[in-house]
Amino acid sequence: MIPELKPTDAAIETIEKESIPSLHFSSEDVLTDPAAIKRRRHDAERAATLGNAYHGKLDIYFQTADGAVKRVYTTIWAMHEEYLTLKSGIALPLRAVLSFDFY
């Protein structure tokens, strides 16, 4: 089970989506529980619908290869098998995503 992430957690760095391409991600999935992986896929599909239909933004919590947890506030334009496409065509590996925070 992943720990409950809270937007007020000072240990979570908020970054701009433009810095994502310079980050490194593990080849392993950050989630190990099959139910959590399924929930993440469902939430990613919901987030893509929110982005396309309403241009809505949300927080995405993800983990880099060095284990750091980061947050980005952005719009998801598309969900693919292994990646999320964010506004401006930036790709974020789905395997790095811990959770989403919908408003």
What's this entry about, in short?
With 103 residues, this protein is α+β, with helices and mostly antiparallel strands. It has one helix at residues 34-54, and strands at residues 13-15, 58-63, 69-74, 76-79, 83-86, 91-93, 97-101. The mean pLDDT is 90.
Low-confidence stretches: none
Placed side by side, the strands forming the largest sheet appear as: 1-3-2-7
Shape: globular
Instruction: Give me the count of strands.
Output: 7
Spatial gap, N to C terminus: 23 Å
Rg, rounded, reads 12 Å
Q: How many strands, which pairing sense, and closed or not: the largest β-sheet?
A: 4 strands, mixed
Helix coverage percent = 10-25%
Order of helices and strands: EHEEEEEE
Number of helices: 1
Structural class given helices, strands, pairing?
alpha+beta
Strand fraction band? 25-35%
* Mean pLDDT over the full residue set: 90
SSE blueprint and pairings:
Elements: E1 13-15, H1 34-54, E2 58-63, E3 69-74, E4 76-79, E5 83-86, E6 91-93, E7 97-101
Parallel strand pairs: 1-3
Antiparallel strand pairs: 2-3, 2-7, 4-5, 5-6
Q: Overview of this structure, please?
A:
This protein is α+β, with helices and mostly antiparallel strands. 20% of the residues are buried. The strands form 2 sheets. A 4-stranded mixed β-sheet has the order 1-3-2-7, with helices on one face. Helix content is 20%, strand content 30%. The longest helix is centred in the middle third of the chain and has 21 residues, at 34-54. The chain starts with 12 loop residues before the first strand and ends with a strand.
